Every structure is written in structure tokens, then in C-alpha cells.
């Protein structure tokens, strides 16, 4: 309904919300990447010396 009544206002509000969510998304991505790297490190077998 708001898109019909005020399309430019709704579009501007959606843009502002999107811009505000970008830092949250970036922080979440980095947190998940760090967790994945930690899992990979813990899954790697311990290095052993040949012989």
C-alpha cells in the first residue's frame, strides 16, 4: 500500500534501511569466516615427523 501511496518515500526508506544493514552484514560475515577458519584449523591432523 505504501508503494502506491508514496513510491519515492518507500524507495528512499528501503534504501536507508539497506545502507544501515550493511555494517551488520559485514560484521556477521567476518564472524562466520573466523569461525570457519577455526574449524578448519581444528580439523587438520597434527603434523608428524617422518621416520
Automatic annotation (TrEMBL):
List, in alphabetical order, the Gene Ontology terms for molecular function in this entry: transferase activity
Write one Pfam family the protein is assigned to: CDP-OH_P_tran_2
Domain (CDP-alcohol phosphatidyltransferase C-terminal) ranges: 1-23
Under InterPro entries, the record lists: CDP-OH_P_trans_C (IPR012616)
Q: Which residues cross the membrane?
A: 6-24
- What keywords were assigned to this record? Membrane, Transferase, Transmembrane, Transmembrane helix
* This protein's name: CDP-diacylglycerol--serine O-phosphatidyltransferase
